[in-house]
Structures are given as structure tokens and as C-alpha cells.
Amino acid sequence: MIKAVIFDLDGVLVTTDELHFSAWKRLAEELGIIGFTKADNARQRGVSRMASLEVVLEKTDRKFSDEEKNELAEKKNDMYVKSLKSLNKSAVLDGVVDFIAYLRNNGIKTAVGSASKNTPVILEKTDLADKFDAVSCGLNTQKSKPDPEVFLIAADKLGIAPSECVVIEDSDAGIEAAKAGGMYAIAVGEAEHNKMADISAASVDGLYKTIEMFGR
Ligand code: B16
Ligand code: MG
Questions:
Q1: Ligand 1: distance of its center to the CA of 161 in Å?
Q2: Are 175 and 197 in contact (CB under 8 A)?
Q3: What is the pLDDT of residues 47-90, one digit of tens each?
Q4: In what order do the strands lie in the sheet with 109-113?
Q5: Are 145 and 127 in contact (CB under 8 A)?
Q6: Which residues make beta-bridge pairs with 166?
Q7: Is 8 a catalytic residue?
């Protein structure tokens, strides 16, 4: 019996994944790295800011101290946060608002489980902030996906057992995290072909039947 759905943020609820990509690409160019591609960006999905930076730095022979790495991560975040200024509800992916309303109308709790430390500002700007019973994000975690911590904290805040939660994710790290936490995992978007997922779908839109299948 499913009692809660935990949504990843970037790439599942909103289109911020494109803004992350642009900011990392700009940082890479400033470091003289050309050819930072979508394939590189795919490895940054769902993982922390510092782990994402390592994906960029793998493409250069230059060595950076921890202090320099922190400065680079901060620089990328400044660019990313600037690009969030114009963010509004048009960034919410198709079907998301209706699907959340459907879940809540049917007594299913909803939560966000995101690696992003910018989660609160993104939820505010896209008018999604009041649509969740709990939010767990990079601000309250020590470990990055594929560690299940972010989802376990979400389940704990909801007061629902992990085995009664479904996670919806667009990253391989996130699917792995959900399974490691003993939850069901639905892979959408870029993670659609992930073999660890219980169910796959192109997007959140059209998951209604899937939720019924999980035993409602
Ligand atoms: P920030 P999610 C993740 O969000 C992104 O997919 C990932 O690319 C990013 O590095 C991470 O958030 C940290 O974001 O720099 O804003 O703290 O997919 O877990 O919602
Ligand atoms: Mg994501």
C-alpha cells in the first residue's frame, strides 16, 4: 500500500536541469575546458554540487586545492542562482500540478527529496511551496544520492514507512538511492531506461494508473 510519493525536484518537478547545465558549461569555459557536453551533464544529475564540480574538473589536467574547489562551486552557484531570478511557474513540468492534486485528493502524502540547496527558493518561485507535506533537500543532508538519506528524511518527516513510499526520479543516482532506502522507484525523463527502477515513464504526466498499480 502506497501512502506517500516523494518527488525529486530538478528534472522531475521543474526544468531547472537546463539552468544547471548552462551554469556548469560557463564555468567549464572559464576554466578553458571546451566540449562540456550533455553527456557530462547527465552524470551531474541528482548528485551534490561538489560531486558535480568533480565531473567538470575531470576534463582538465589542472589541479585545484579544496579552497579553490569551494570557490569554483560558489561561482557556479552564483551563476545558477542569477538564472533562477526569472524562474516562475512556467518552469513546472507538464502534468505535475494536476498529479500532485490527484495524490492529495486521494489521501496520499507528497514530499520533495532533492539534492539541491536551492530547493526552498525554487519551490517558492514556481508556486509549488504549499503543495508538499514535507521537504527534504541538500540543506538537511550530509550524504549525497545514491545514499538514501535525503529520501529517508522525507519519509521520516511525513511519518510514513519507507516501504510505503514511492520516489519519482530522473537520475540514476536518485533511483539507486530510492532502492537503497527500501522504497519503490519510478524513473522518468533521462532515467527512463534505468533497470533498477520498478516502473519507467516518459514524464510525471500519465503516472495516475501507475500509482493505482502500487496498491491503492
Ligand atoms: P545545488 P535534484 C540536484 O537536484 C541536481 O540534479 C544536480 O545537478 C545538482 O548538482 C544538485 O541538485 C545540487 O544542487 O547546487 O542547487 O545545491 O535532481 O536532486 O532535485
Ligand atoms: Mg533530478
A1: 25
A2: yes
A3: 999 999 999 999 999 999 999 999 999 999 999 999 999 999 99
A4: 134-136, 109-113, 4-7, 165-169, 184-188, 199-201
A5: no
A6: 5, 184
A7: yes
Residue 161 has pLDDT above 60, yes or no: yes
Grid cell, residue 31, equals 576554466
* Residues in Cβ contact with 43 at an 8 Å cutoff, skipping those fewer than 6 apart: 55
Alpha-carbon separation of residue 25 from 20, 43, 54, 155 (angstroms): 9, 13, 13, 34
Pocket of ligand 1, candidates 50, 52, 78, 87: which has the most ligand atoms within 8 Å of its Cβ, to mutate? Answer: 52
**133 burial via Cβ count (<10 Å: 0-12, 13-18, 19+):** middle
How far apart CA 165 and CA 7 sit, in angstroms, is: 10
Nearest CA to ligand 1 atom 12: 116
Using the mean position of ligand 2's atoms as its centre, give its distance from the Cα of residue 18 in Å.
11
The question of whether 66 is a catalytic residue gets the answer no
Annotated active-site residue in 8, 17, 40, 172 = 8
Residues 6+ apart with CB under 8 A from 166: 2, 4, 5, 6, 183, 184, 185, 186, 211, 214
The answer to whether residues 12 and 132 touch, using CB atoms and an 8 Å cutoff, is no
Which residues have C-beta within 8 Å of that of residue 30, sequence separation ≥ 6? 75
120: left (phi over 0), alpha (psi -120 to 50) or beta: alpha
Mutate to test the pocket of ligand 1, among 21, 87, 116, 153 (most ligand atoms within 8 A of CB): 116
Which ligand is nearest the CA of 42, by number?
Answer: 1
Mean pLDDT, the chain, whole residue set: 95
